[in-house]
Every structure is written in structure tokens, then in C-alpha cells.
Here is the input.
Amino acid sequence: MLADFLICNTSEVLSCAGPAPRIGRRQADAGSLARGVVAARGGLIVFVGHESDWRRLGTLTDDAVVLDARGGAVVPGFVDPHTHVIFAGDRRDELRRRLAGATYAEIAADGGGIVSSVNATRAATEDDLAADTRARLDEMLRCGTTTCEAKSGYGLTTDAELKMLRVLRAVAADHDIEVSPTLLGAHEVPVEYRERRRAYIDVVIREMIPAVARERLAEWCDVFCETGVFTPDESREILLAARQAGLKLRMHADELGPSGGSRVAAELRVRSADHLIFVDEAGADALAAAGVVATLLPIASFYLKLGRSAPARMLIDRGVAVALATDVNPGGGFSPSMPFAMTLACFSMGLTFEEALVGATLNAAYALDRHDHVGGLEPGKQMDAVLVSGPAGDLIRVGADTIRAVVKRGRVCHAR
Amino acid sequence: MLADFLICNTSEVLSCAGPAPRIGRRQADAGSLARGVVAARGGLIVFVGHESDWRRLGTLTDDAVVLDARGGAVVPGFVDPHTHVIFAGDRRDELRRRLAGATYAEIAADGGGIVSSVNATRAATEDDLAADTRARLDEMLRCGTTTCEAKSGYGLTTDAELKMLRVLRAVAADHDIEVSPTLLGAHEVPVEYRERRRAYIDVVIREMIPAVARERLAEWCDVFCETGVFTPDESREILLAARQAGLKLRMHADELGPSGGSRVAAELRVRSADHLIFVDEAGADALAAAGVVATLLPIASFYLKLGRSAPARMLIDRGVAVALATDVNPGGGFSPSMPFAMTLACFSMGLTFEEALVGATLNAAYALDRHDHVGGLEPGKQMDAVLVSGPAGDLIRVGADTIRAVVKRGRVCHAR
Here is the structure.
């Protein structure tokens, strides 16, 4: 067996190998292999196993790159299946203002809030939008993310949504992170349509979706189904139009209240229902029966101080595959870190470390329908990995800066 | 005014300057100065103010170091007033086991728990203990800590406690972090004294405290006052003996239950009562009246999944100065990051960003009785600072790696 890339001298490889998604008790199986090695050729994994077997079976090319893990652990590159990473404008100051007691209404009245992100994104040049997005992807990469989803949704006109997705495509073309693009024209009813929301839904269905499908600018269509945003009926109509146009489906569901999103998600068998802070047991059973992944975003609950998290334990126990994501966004998604999403999943949601890791890798890859080539360390998949400077559990030692290297397609694209 | 060190081109300097501690509403005053500059000479600050004033008043030496903040914010170097940073042995694997459901008793039965840290620390060579401690201090420094407290307490014999404090002194002598050492002989009754605890208390009082005082190995004496550890009466006796010997006092109080620690802290007017998860309003009033600082450790609540945090808002509202600390320790203090302590203080305890920052700087310096020379950016204090790559609020964007440089006594000791 010939390899041009090898990770050796590990304490443990957590491969997350095997069929996706991992459901129920199997979500706790992260595929631990003590002192494993991982070998790849041409960016694809050819071997994961014991060092002694590699010595017997493997050969390195003359120019092979050998990464000495120095006794640290190795896990798959993280897959972040829910981000709003492309936007213009800076709302980070809202964080301090909110903590000091400013209400969302006060911030919006001062020109903050989502409207300000929409205005800034519409006004931004493509170059500026690209530069901002690239910087955010760089941050995510340093946190170990090698594949992510990215949504439009701060344009809210056909032109501006298309601009976002075109810029995203251009940025993704030369970034180490592999990007799965999503049309989220139905992120919000824009101000100018507030009195005629039906007309905006028509724009989404008759203009945006066909144009995006025509240019193949997105793989997914998402809808923000929530009281005050889009109703379950509106969400269903938009999603069905998108499916008709060839887009795959995912949705924001039951984030701020039990607003019916998980019912629509199960009915349409969308790939992923996201947030689910208010999903109940009946909703969980419906998602499980329909094979919908629950993508949970504990960082959003944390920074928005929602005071509760999605019932992750209940979802796992009722047979729903759980994935984790960061929800990077301008107004509350302040952490680019999948390890922090894992940390909160463990300490606020009651997941085990292994469940959280599977949620951040294999199940997240399934949530993006990319589990055929990312999300696990096994032959045939891409050589995407994170080297930890100590044991794998160090990933959830917040602030300890324990990611030593990030590998995408067999190339070390971040190291310290 | 002559300076050999200058930080310029900031967006904001949060100086935390002024009298310590900051109590009540004043804790929210972090001393914001838009586009400020900070100048120092010989490691001491000589000027903090507007750029235009500096241009008028200041002169740089020929060999001056100029740090361009590139539009980022500057805050004082963090002061971490409660750590158990010196110990031997590695219990990080307990984190994963605990998350997977192992009880503390099961982990202890397998040779884990505090007993394992004591055994490892007793057995460790001074060189190994020094190397481990140095590595942990390095981690803290990268997180912006420039001054910290460090306790003994994993020796639990006179010799082993003295060894810890001697190693700590040696490590501190050539580390950038300024260390304030604490004798915590009364951390736990060691196994060999479980049936005769009085005899152990006598060892602490008659051997450890005099020996430590004689060698000037510690500035502070601390006691773990808690049900099942040391009673309020025992804690009082130990602390009074320490005061008699010339040590200053601090204590672990009301962490796991309302066990009377805050009453003792107020009665003895110790400098700092730490943890205080179960302090009530009467306890807060007593602390406020006695001028005791409340040092809160939200990272401990988080990683130990205590399910509640100290009532930080109540403490501030009742006039107690609140400081923040990491509680770095082998069994649960898994984060070396004062910014993470601030993050949890904001999002789990309801502090504003400014209150958290004052708690991590000026009030923490007061908790260590070092507010005369650290904890704030003002003339006469040490040139200890953290440069943020963006706005100051980025410090609480977990995982975003936003600390660009750490300065101690006018020297850049970490940069990226």
C-alpha cells in the first residue's frame, strides 16, 4: 500500500468511521484506536489502523509528508453544517451593548440588528464581501473546520442573494475549507415587503429559486420557520418549490418557540432540522421516523442567552441523529469554533465527548449529504484531520489552544 | 515625558484605572478611552491618554519599542487570583470518563481523583514538577494572564508542601507571569490522617505554617472550608495561626454548599473569599461590610457541571467587589483562560462585559493585594497589557483566537 501522507506517533485516533448517520447509542461510538496511524495518497485516506500493521503493509513515496503527532490525538476534520459566514458589516459591538442591558429594539433603532446586516451586505462590493468572508473562514479553519455549510440570507433581493452566492462560490474556490452553499432567501421578510409578505414569498419562489438553480449557485434551500418570520405553510411552499427546482432541503425549526418547524421538516423529510430548542417528544419521534438529522447550535443559545438548549439527550434517546454546528452569524454567532460547540454540547446539553465528536464530524457530514467523502477517517474518504496537542479531550479545554494542525485533503493548511 | 515603549493606533483602551476595588455600580466602569495610547519607561507606565496629547507631551527613546495595535483594543494584563497550577500527574482523561457517566467514586477507585494528584505530586522530582508547572503557566500567558496566584495543596505533608512552594518560587523566578504564592496545606485531610484529622490540623499549624513563614515561601494562607473538608472552626484556627505567622489570608468558601465559609471570611476579614456558589444575601452583606473580595470561578461550575453559578449579580448589587479567576487545577479546572472566565461571567452570571473585565483585572489585583502595581493601565503601574486583534468584546468570542500580543513589564512576551 503506497502513501504520500502519514500521521504517526499518535496516542489515539478517533476515526468516526462507519455508516452515517450514527443514531441512538451508536452516536457514542467515535471509533477509538489506540496509537493508530492514518495514511493517505493523493488527498484520500488509504489506511487507518495500528502502527504495526502499517509497518507490515505500507510504503511511503519518496516525497511523502510525515506528520508526527508527538503523542497527541487525531480526529476527523470538523464539519460545520450551519453557518451564516457570508455577510458584510460589523455588529460585534452589539455584544457588549446587549450585555449592558440594551434591548434588541434599542439596538435596531440605532441602526443595528439584522436590518443593518442586510443593508451592509446589499451595499458591499463583491471584493469587500469576499475579503470579510475569507477572514471568517480562516478563523473557522484555525478551529479545525475543514468542511462547512454557508447560507445566503442577508441580501433579501434576488440580485443581492445571487451576489452573496456568487461571492461565496468564488471565495470557496480557493479556500481550504470545502463549502456547501445554501439559499436562504427566506431568512426574513425584508423591510420593504413587511406590508406585503406574500409578494416577497413570490419573489423567493419565482425569482430566487429558479435563478439559483439555473446558475447552480446552491446545493440547499433553507427557510427560517418561526413565529413572526415564515409560517409552517409558507415554509412548506418555499421548500417544495426548491425541491422541484433540484435543491436539497434543510430548515431552521423550533428555535424560539414550538412553532411547527419540526413537523414540516419531518413531513418533507428535509435532510436537517436546525436549532430545535423547543422540539418536544412527538416532534423528535416524527424526525426520527422521517430520518431527519437534528443539527443543534448550542453556541447560539449561549450567546443569545436563551436560557435553554435543545433537548439533545432526548433527541438521541429517541433515535434522532444529532449533529452540531456553530451558527456563525453577525448578531450572535460569535464563536467560529466547533470545539466550543462540542464543549457546550457536553456541559450544557449532557452529551458525552464521543457523542459530541460524532455530532461534529460524521453526523454533521451526513447533515450536509457529504458523508461519502468527509466526516470520518477511513479509506476512501478525504484526508481531513485535526491533530490535538494532547489527548482528544483537550479539544474541550476552552482557551487551551490545543489544535496543533489542521489537514485538508492531505495538506497541512494550519499548524502552530 | 520620555518613553521606551508605546502602544499606538488602538481603537479603544480600557484602562481599569483608578482606586481598587471597584464596588457596586462602579464595577461597570472599565475606563474606556477611544483611540488611546499607552506609554511606558523601564516597564512602568508613564502615560495613558489621547494620541494628540501624547504627541504634544511625549518623546520616545531611540531604541523604543512601538507596538501598533492596528485598530484593535488594549486592556490590562489579566490577573488570575485563584489557581492550583502546580501539581504533577495528568487527570485530563477523567473529563471524558465523567462525561460518559463515571462517578467520582468510580474514578477514585481506579486511582483517579485528588488522591492521585497528591500521590503524583509527592512522588514527582522537582524538575518534573517545575516543567509541568511552567507549561501550564505558558498556556495561561497565551490567554493574557500576566499575574496569578498559585496554591500548594497536593503535597499534604510538610516536606511535600514545602517542595511545591520551592518549585513554584524557582519557576516563577524566570517566568513572565508574576506569581503570588499561597500555602494550601489545608486543601484536604490526607488519606493517612483520615482517622485522626486533629493531628493533621496540628501539622498544618505547628509545622507547615511556621516553616513556610520562615522561608518566606508564601504570601497567603488558604483553607478549603467545606462540609467534609475543613469546618468553619478548623478553618478559623488555621487561618488565625497563619495570620499570626505573618501570612495574609484567603479562603475557599461555600462552593459546594452553604457551609459557613463566608461567615468565617467576613469575621476574619480575609482578603478574598473564593467560589461562593452558595453564599446568601446575609453572607454577601457580611462580606461587603468586612471589605472581603468575592473571587468567583465560573469555569469550575461549568466543568464540574454544578448546575449553578455564584450569585455574581447579587454580590455586586449588595456592594461586594467581584473578582474572577480560572481555578486551573488537575480535576476540573480545565481552562487556563481568563477570557473564558469572563465569557461565563457574562453569559452564565449576568455580568456586563465591563464588570467582567474589571473582575479580571483591577478587582483581581486587589484580591491579591497587588493593585498598587498591576491590574490597570495608569501611570506608575507595570506595563502589563493584552492587545486584542479587534474590538475588546472579541475577548469573549470563544475560539476566535483574538489575543494578538501579551505584554509584561513593557516586554512583548507572547505575540501571534
User: Anything to note?
Assistant: Residues 78-367 of chain A form a domain with the TIM Barrel fold (CATH 3.20.20.140). Chain A has a mean pLDDT of 96. The longest strand of chain A covers residues 59-68.
